[in-house]
Amino acid sequence: MKTVTMEYRVPYADTDMMGVVYYGNYLTIFERARNELMRRTGYTYKKCEEDGFALPVIHAEVDYKSPARYDDLLEVDCTCESFRGVRLKIACTVRRGAEVLAKGFTEHCFVSLATRRPVPPPPAFAAAMSETEGK
Fold first, then answer.
1. pLDDT at 127
2. Which of 25, 57, 108, 123 could crosslink 88 through cysteines, CB 3.0-4.6 Å?
3. Active site includes 16?
4. Is residue 134 very low, low, confident or very high in pLDDT (cuts 50, 70, 90)?
5. For 24, phi and psi rounded to 5 degrees?
């Protein structure tokens, strides 16, 4: 599968009193990586919304291995792991150098912004993701 790698420098605002990245902020990092994956496929999240669609998270998991700290330069690998029907699964791995700090995924359901109901994705999105998935 095609993997997009994004660099992320940890800002002080992402850390807790122990000086490590607060656990919930990993999902924000996943979101940034997912947006970058979509951008690099040529179908941005902004375009998705302009077309009248959204991709709400319906399930998320994170496996924490080791803490990241303020000013760490992280690399986030993001992959479209599966795309079937209205569902999309995006996997992410957060690394500091060769060390894996966290792994996880988010699952999404394609919905219409007008009705908030699940709908098939627009052809442009399906084409962009099918070019990413499995490569």
1. 82
2. 108
3. yes
4. very low
5. -70, -20
